[in-house]
């Protein structure tokens, strides 16, 4: 914390500043700040909490929570704030009864707090109802109805939703509110950088070949206008034929000693030219930039700040967008954190990409012959040596990629050649690592890594909890036993007390197949307990937890999953699940969506590739659904199996996957194992008071156990909306 926090509390129309009442105590520490409000009577009252986060962006880097005394000691409740632009965030709602303090902590992965203002305002319930009625009258009426019949929690939830103001729309609006530096921002950054000791030198390397002079001049200007002054621009002119280009470069070098230019005697294409520029670099880190693109003014500052915070970083990359010939910004790419499985398929890192120079030199720089995918090839070779802990994604737009036709961008003109180079780069990675796998062209020209199964193939024990609904169970059993080409399958059907004659007859029929075992487990439905019992009875080293409402769509799905699950670094594997109409049901799980977690890309059409192709490429995710989840038995036992005590029905799969990741394993979702899911047809909906109470208890378990993780899914992006995982801003 660089400056004292300005905190205030408004009670009704009055205003009390922190120094005016001794009972408010601010505690500053490395990890958190606590505002003691025990004697102020804020518990069970409607309040608005507003604060300003000095870190620039569309999301708060602060976790706000209310701490209340409970029967088992202090209990924290996370308060999800809403962004209003220019670093300002607000939460409006009813604080838990018995609230004793308000806590501010850095979000997972953030080093410290940077809060400039903090205000608590007590609100009148009558005034809030009036405001809500103007915004959302139907929802407000429902809130009043539930209040009248004594359902206070339900009423409070609906009133809070009705009070949320309409969201912003459009990327242009987002840029104005969340990605436009004010003069105060610029002054703050300049003052901060001036105090840094031994700031890292960042070498921006730029190959140049016949760009339009205007766009080249704009690219150069964007580097010279950086708020972070400790850079050098290393340019290799790749024998440009336009005489205006070397004249422009010579003038820029004469005006700023930080700009260094070397003209190549002959055109060697982008890889050779980039290597020439690398040869000029003296900085510990190199940033790659094309000759017609633009860096925002704070780009190198954000990179330098990350390096100062973590001096051991080897690779830093950022979010990006595109600009057209008029400079209009569009099509932002908000990325996830380090995801090597996704990198096999596509180069999702560029741009802005910054790498430790010694590491680039150690792998031999860029390779001629991979033009069009030379950056992807470099990143795949770097990945052989990278420690994931030394890779950092900055969720900030730090690169504007020009898309004007005719600008000289190599891959625009040679897409087919670029795809071939990308495929060859992955083939060479497979060969370097001695893998028995093969590489093929996947959907939309992206790479696909097809893993080889061990010989002999390990047995897959399929565990299916079920009750009645013979028409569903018959479909999944037929698909497993006759429609799947995997060589060694065992099916363990865990019957939760079926009573319908068709179901009993089907279970008897299935048990006659030597590949099928039927366990009788009557009693209340407990997915975790049933699955644990099935796993204990299974004999295979690979366990596949499968719902009874799954329909097999193609024969090779299990081979795809098993070939990934056997890898030592992999802890769990999930499949692509679609509804019967072809729309997507499960594309991996995004944490924090809807409160705890939600499916990625819900309800997109069968031909929709998803956000930047994400739904056609295998990738690491935070969790996958237990409707179709495969893992090695040794991992399942090591992490403690499903939680049958606290998570009987909901979120047990999310909890299991989070424990898998905490143990150091990855969770992989693959679109190349595709099935149809008739979701929850056998179990039904959460439509009774008992089911709702159980569900709310399971939500509480997850938020208490995994609160920080739920707010910070590494494979999503904090700039994107979390009502649903639609990969949209709003």
Topology:
Blueprint lengths: L5 E6 L2 E4 L8 E3 L4 E4 L9 E8 L8 E9 L2 E6 L3 E4 L2 E7 L4 E8 L8 E8 L2 H11 L1 H12 L3 H12 L7 H8 L4 H12 L7 E7 L4 H12 L6 E7 L6 H12 L3 E5 L5 H12 L4 E4 L10 H11 L5 E9 L5 E5 L6 H6 L7 E4 H6 L11 H10 L7 E12 L7 H4 L1 H18 L5 E4 L5 E4 L9 E7 L3 H13 L6 E7 L5 H11 L4 E5 L6 H11 L4 E5 L3 E3 L4 H9 L4 E9 L5 E3 L2 E3 L5 E3 L19 E2 L7 E5 H6 L13 H11 L3 E12 L11 H22 L20
Parallel strand pairs: 1-11, 12-13, 12-15, 13-14, 16-19, 22-23, 22-25, 23-24, 27-33
Antiparallel strand pairs: 1-2, 3-4, 4-10, 5-9, 5-11, 6-7, 6-10, 8-9, 15-18, 16-17, 16-18, 20-21, 25-32, 26-33, 27-28, 27-32, 29-30, 31-33
Helix pairs in contact: 1-2, 1-3, 2-3, 6-7, 12-14, 15-16
Your description of this structure?
- There is one protein chain.
- By secondary structure, the protein is α/β, with parallel strands linked by helices.
- The protein has four domains: 1-123, Jelly Rolls, CATH 2.60.120; 129-180, no CATH class; 188-411, Spore Coat Polysaccharide Biosynthesis Protein SpsA, Chain A (Alpha-Beta Complex); 460-711, Spore Coat Polysaccharide Biosynthesis Protein SpsA, Chain A (Alpha-Beta Complex), CATH 3.90.550.60.
- Strands 22, 23, 24, 25, 26, 27, 28, 31, 32 and 33 form a ten-stranded mixed beta sheet that branches. Strands 12, 13, 14, 15, 16, 17, 18 and 19 form an eight-stranded mixed beta sheet that branches.
- A hairpin with a 2-residue loop joins β8 and β9 (88-94).
- α6 (213-224) packs parallel to α7.
- The protein is globular, with a radius of gyration of 28 Å.
- The model is unreliable at 1-7, 11-30 and 405-412 (pLDDT under 50).
- Residues 203-329, 461-639 form the Glycosyltransferase 2-like domain.
- It comes from Methylobacterium terrae.
- InterPro entries: Glyco_trans_2-like (IPR001173), Glycosyltransf_2 (IPR050834), Nucleotide-diphossugar_trans (IPR029044).
- Keywords: Transferase.
- Pfam families: Glycos_transf_2.
């Amino acid at each position: 914390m660089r400056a004292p926090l300005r905190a205030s509390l408004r009670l009704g129309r009055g205003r009390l500043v922190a120094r005016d009442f001794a009972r408010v105590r601010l505690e500053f520490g490395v990890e958190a700040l606590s505002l003691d409000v025990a004697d102020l009577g804020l518990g069970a009252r409607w309040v608005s909490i507003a604060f300003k986060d000095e870190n620039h962006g569309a999301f708060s880097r602060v976790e706000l929570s209310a701490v209340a005394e409970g029967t088992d000691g202090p209990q924290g409740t996370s308060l999800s704030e809403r962004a209003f632009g220019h670093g300002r965030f607000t939460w409006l709602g009813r604080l838990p009864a018995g609230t004793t303090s308000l806590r501010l902590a850095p979000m997972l992965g953030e080093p410290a707090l940077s809060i400039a203002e903090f205000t608590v305002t007590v609100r009148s319930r009558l005034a809030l109802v009036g405001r809500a009625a103007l915004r959302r009258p139907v929802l407000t009426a429902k809130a009043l109805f539930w209040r009248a019949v004594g359902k206070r929690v339900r009423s409070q939830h609906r009133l809070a939703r009705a009070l949320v103001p309409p969201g912003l729309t459009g990327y242009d609006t987002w840029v104005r509110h969340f990605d436009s530096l004010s003069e105060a921002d610029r002054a703050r950054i300049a003052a901060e950088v001036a105090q840094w000791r031994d700031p890292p030198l960042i070498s921006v390397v730029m190959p140049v070949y016949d760009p339009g002079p205007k766009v080249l001049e704009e690219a150069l200007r964007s580097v010279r206008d950086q708020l972070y002054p400790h850079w050098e621009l290393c340019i290799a002119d790749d024998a440009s034929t336009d005489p205006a280009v070397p004249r422009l470069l010579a003038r820029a070098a004469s005006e700023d000693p930080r700009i260094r230019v070397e003209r190549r005697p002959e055109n060697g294409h982008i890889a050779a030219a980039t290597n020439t520029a690398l040869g000029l670099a003296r900085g510990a880190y190199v940033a790659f930039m094309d000759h017609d693109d633009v860096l925002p003014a704070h780009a190198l500052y954000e990179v330098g700040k990350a390096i100062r915070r973590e001096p051991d970083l080897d690779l830093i990359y950022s979010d990006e967008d595109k600009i057209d010939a008029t400079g209009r910004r569009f099509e932002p790419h908000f990325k996830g954190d380090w995801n090597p499985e996704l990198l096999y398929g596509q180069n999702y890192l560029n741009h802005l990409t910054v790498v430790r120079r010694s590491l680039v030199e150690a792998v031999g720089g860029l390779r001629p012959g991979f033009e069009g995918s030379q950056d992807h090839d470099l990143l795949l070779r770097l990945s052989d040596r990278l420690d994931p802990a030394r890779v950092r994604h900055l969720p900030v737009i730090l690169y504007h990629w020009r898309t004007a036709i005719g600008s000289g961008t190599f891959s625009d003109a040679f897409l087919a050649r670029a795809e071939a180079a990308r495929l060859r780069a992955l083939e060479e990675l497979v060969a370097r690592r001695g893998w028995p796998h093969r590489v093929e062209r996947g959907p939309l020209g992206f790479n696909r890594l097809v893993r080889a199964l061990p010989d002999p193939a390990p047995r897959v024990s399929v565990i299916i909890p079920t009750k009645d609904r013979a028409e569903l169970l018959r479909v999944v059993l037929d698909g497993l036993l006759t429609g799947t080409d995997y060589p060694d399958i065992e099916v363990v059907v865990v019957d939760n007390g079926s009573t319908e004659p068709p179901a009993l007859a089907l279970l008897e029929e299935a048990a006659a197949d030597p590949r099928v075992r039927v366990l009788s487990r009557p009693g209340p439905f407990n997915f975790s307990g049933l699955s644990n019992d099935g796993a204990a009875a299974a004999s295979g080293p690979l366990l596949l937890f499968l719902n009874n409402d799954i329909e097999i769509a193609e024969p090779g799905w299990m081979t795809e999953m098993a070939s990934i699950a056997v890898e030592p670094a992999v802890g769990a594997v999930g499949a692509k699940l679609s509804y019967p109409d072809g729309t997507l049901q499960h594309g991996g799980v995004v944490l924090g969506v809807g409160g705890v977690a939600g499916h990625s890309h819900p309800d997109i059409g069968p031909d929709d590739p998803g956000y930047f192709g994400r739904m056609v490429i295998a990738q690491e995710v935070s969790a996958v659904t237990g409707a179709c989840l495969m893992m090695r038995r040794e991992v399942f036992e090591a992490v403690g199996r499903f939680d049958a005590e606290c998570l009987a029905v909901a979120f047990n799969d999310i909890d299991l996957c989070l424990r898998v990741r905490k143990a150091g394993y990855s969770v992989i979702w693959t679109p190349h194992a595709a099935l149809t899911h008739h979701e929850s047809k056998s179990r039904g909906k959460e439509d009774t008071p008992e089911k709702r109470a159980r569900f709310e208890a399971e939500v509480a378990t997850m938020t208490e156990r995994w609160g920080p993780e739920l707010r910070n899914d590494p494979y999503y992006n904090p700039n994107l909306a979390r009502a649903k995982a639609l990969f949209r801003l709003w």
